[in-house]
Amino acid sequence: MLSKKAKYAITALVFIAKHQEEQPISVSKIAEAQNIPLKFLESILTELKNARILNSKKGKYGGYSLNGAPESIDMARVMRLLDGAISLLPCVSFNFYERCEECIDERTCGIRQVAMEIRDETLKRLQAATLADIVAREDRLQQ
Amino acid sequence: MLSKKAKYAITALVFIAKHQEEQPISVSKIAEAQNIPLKFLESILTELKNARILNSKKGKYGGYSLNGAPESIDMARVMRLLDGAISLLPCVSFNFYERCEECIDERTCGIRQVAMEIRDETLKRLQAATLADIVAREDRLQQ
DNA sequence: TTAAATCCTATCATTTTTATAGGCTTTAAG
DNA sequence: CTTAAAGCCTATAAAAATGATAGGATTTAA
């Protein structure tokens, strides 16, 4: 399961991507429009800024804007930033590898092999799910 | 991520499936062989018994055995029992559906659509990953 | 000067996860 | 009939993760 944090982050990013004319856009606008707790969202957007996914502008008429094209930001990147590993098992994660403590022999673990295949498939789809892709999907669903 | 509980459960089930001649097999045998905390595993096997995935036999020379063929028990079933929903979002879960609280319109949510596609793919693979399949994979990996 | 924004630091309640402890009950063998 | 070895049952609890909230400092444009 995606955490609410990651879900809020992606929702906010999609919202920003959809309002590129009005950028920068303030936390309070996003929080209100998308029903996200204001202070929680503030801390999330700070993380996105620190990770250089967003730019920020301080002061009146300030706010956040995408750092890069909507095609360059995908769900995998955001989920890894906020939730850590994407895979079902730590021993199969590219970015957050850890041994399964109880594991006897990683090489011959059948559960692990299944987890690898699911990881590959899931990752492919999450990387294809860029902000541009999600916005396009929503445009299509709108009709 | 799979919880340790679910991982331990699947590991134990695979172990039992591999030792069908010696069934029933005791918690302590499994715990020792697979490096799983004894009392924790005990509570997990109780859950599997309550869900009719395992049979138990009390008293000396008692223990647990599979309730059904190794082909009939798959990872999806075990994960749902111990961890709940398999999907990335609650609004996309077959067995544990919930609205995303903040969601404005589920029908036109692009994130949800991505989550549905990943759910379908993941579920297909988890359902194919029966105990028999996992054992066969390990036999193959052994060489 | 002021309004509206981000930035920064601290705190915190709740839930989930990962167990542990200890005794009761059942069963098969000797 | 006793005993060893197993599951059954109930309670407890430490640690980590999750999902926030509070309040003030700083920055910027009008």
- Tally of distinct domains of chain A: 2
Helical content class of chain A: 40-55%
List the quaternary state of the chains.
Answer: homodimer
Q: Could you say which structural class the secondary elements and strand pairing of chain A correspond to? A: mainly alpha
Shape summary of chain A:
elongated
Number of helical segments with 4 or more residues of chain A: 6
| Rg calculated over all Cα atoms of chain A | 18 Å
Strand order of the largest sheet of chain A: 1-2
The description of the largest β-sheet of chain A is: 2 strands, antiparallel
Overall pLDDT level of chain A = 97
Low-pLDDT runs of 5+ residues of chain A are none
Q: Strand-residue fraction of chain A?
A: 5-15%
**Span between N and C termini of chain A?**
29 Å
Biggest interface: chains and residue counts?
Answer: A-B, 44 and 44 residues
What is the succession of H and E elements of chain A?
A: HHHEEHHH
The number of distinct β-strands of chain A equals 2
Would you mind describing this structure in some detail?
The structure is a homodimer of 143-residue chains. With 143 residues, chain A is mainly α. Chain A folds into two domains: 4-66, Winged helix-like DNA-binding domain superfamily/Winged helix DNA-binding domain (Arc Repressor Mutant, subunit A, Orthogonal Bundle), CATH 1.10.10.10; 74-142, no CATH class. In chain A, 53% of the residues lie in helices and 6% in strands. Chain A contains six helices and two strands, in the order H-H-H-E-E-H-H-H. Chain A has helices at residues 4-18, 27-34, 38-50, 75-83, 110-128, 131-142, and strands at residues 54-57, 63-66. In chain A, strands 1-2 form a two-stranded antiparallel ribbon. In chain A, a hairpin with a 5-residue loop joins strand 1 and strand 2 (63-66). In chain A, helix 1 packs antiparallel against helix 4 and helix 2 crosses helix 3. Chain A starts with a helix and ends with a helix. The structure holds a DNA duplex (30 and 30 nucleotides).
